[in-house]
Design a protein that fits this description.
By secondary structure, this protein is of the alpha/beta class. The chain contains 12 helices and 14 strands. The strands form 2 sheets. It has an 8-stranded mixed beta sheet with strand order 5-4-3-2-1-12-13-14. A 6-stranded mixed beta sheet has the order 8-7-6-9-11-10, covered by helices on one side. β13, α11 and β14 form a beta-alpha-beta unit. The radius of gyration is 18 Å and the shape is globular. The mean pLDDT is 95.
Length: 285
Amino acid sequence: MNQKGKVIFVDVDGTLVDYNNDLPESAVKAIRAARANGHRVYMCTGRSKAEVYPELWEIGLDGMLGGNGSYVEDHGHVVMHQLITLEQCRRIVDWLHSRKLEFYLESNNGLFASEHFKETCVPTLKEYSRRKGVEETDEEISSGTFLTSMISGAELYRDDLNKVSYLLNSYQDFLDTREQFPDMANGTWGGVGETALFGDLGVKGITKANAIERLLKYLGADAEDTIAVGDAKIDIPMLEYCRIGIAMGNGGPEIREMADYVTDSVENDGLYHAFVKFGLMEPQS
């Protein structure tokens, strides 16, 4: 690969920011230095645009691939946006209500919570943080950006959705939901198999790799000049697709085993060290 003109895709949670949503200064330096060297850097995340807070845009990124691949944006231009239909949303909301499962709807226009999601989800989010090595109190979780930015009492039948996430009371909830919605992408997060904490529903056929392919076609860029950095199982397709796939040291075993290179953890400046390793920037003091 040439040393100029790479297109770099960086996951957000567990890669760009830690599991407390803290953004290391070294990651900011790395991205700004790489872009100054002529490379393009995009966040490639499960988050919808409403969850991309100002401090991330202030880094100076070229754009984002959101909703695990349902949304592609380059310098403010929407390249692709594949949405859950209004009819699918109605079916999802009615089904989750019938199962007494709390949920939130993920849109570029906001995160819209079901009636009792905010109070019901606190123990689950606490466990999610604990599994990532972070001990948080109920108060810290309740007052965190994720929950405080969530909108309650809004219309839940919507036509602007990228994804829907729902709390699992048991793994059977996921299995039954998957059977109920064969026309949609069904997944889990927060754990593997029966340890999963959330289920999610999205547009069928959507992956981060598919979104990268669409962006490259728009840019007229070559997959040979791509680098991806991630930490989770859902990032594996983009690491497989890109010329170089880098796993974070804090990543799960599946992604670390398949990656071309494993860097340090978020807390130990993993993104910065990876950018130096692959010649995207010079070491900085």
